[in-house]
């Protein structure tokens, strides 16, 4: 369901056609990843996260389940609301218009609800306790750019491997292959709405949902609330990162993207724990989504 409101997907047009933007960024990410790996070998304590400060909170896991249920209700209610103005069969312009507006509406409302919950349950408030601060924005921005570049080739490699495995397993069932390897709804909307009279406005709406609102709302929920709550309960940062990343990947319905999203979630969670701030994770997530949207636009698809 969240895959309709976010676009953190590595969906190239084919196994080898990554587009000019990715062909430049992937080698850079590989080089940065090698440097990072050698640095972590030299300083392994930074990987264990044992010395990173916790984020005291009173957030009960049941609240997280309630929030997930509320998210589903928001999606259904918003979809019904916008269907009164925009409607049509699957993959029609009206269908994608409804999807884009629903995505923006749900993300705004869910973000506001999650922030309200965090403000009440985190002992030291949203900035100091929750990590929603721009106090070190220069460092966090640079860290986010580097981490995104490192994550990029890993996620693309996992996506292509998963894509190849699905094609091998379902070689005799093209319809199943298409179902399991379809692009996220917002990526499809970019193409489907390109010929409308107000195409630029719809393109802005897609970018807003995928590059601005989805990173904000999903990082606030998955990293800020879920990961912090699990760390509070287990006392183990990596257990919290892995579980939150698994939920993050599972909530995106495209099977072909889940291994890549799991890896992305680990990168996002690690950076949240290392800094105690959400901004690095938000920057990574936003740039990641923006990269694939820009890559598709450059390809003229």
Total of helices: 12
Overall number of domains: 1
Number of strands: 0
For this entry, what is the oligomeric state of its chains?
single chain
Roughly how many Å is the radius of gyration?
19 Å
Q: Could you list the spans in which at least 5 consecutive residues all have pLDDT below 50? A: 1-16
Distance between the termini: 24 Å
For the sheet with most strands, the description reads: none
Order of helices and strands: HHHHHHHHHHHH
What structural class do helix, strand and pairing data support? mainly alpha
Rounded average pLDDT: 90
| 3D shape | globular
Strand content: under 5%
Summarize the amount of helix as a percent range: over 70%
Please give a quick description of this structure:
The chain is built from twelve helices and no strands. The protein is mostly helical and 301 residues long. It has one domain (2-34, 54-299).
Question: Secondary-structure blueprint of this entry?
Answer:
Blueprint lengths: L18 H24 L2 H4 L12 H23 L9 H29 L3 H5 L7 H33 L4 H7 L4 H8 L6 H36 L2 H14 L7 H18 L3 H21 L2
Helix pairs in contact: 1-6, 1-12, 3-4, 4-8, 4-9, 6-11, 6-12, 8-9, 9-10, 9-12, 10-11, 11-12
Report on this model:
The chain is mainly alpha-helical. The protein has one domain. Helix content is 74%, strand content 0%. It is built from twelve helices and no strands. The longest helix has 36 residues, at 199-234. It is globular.
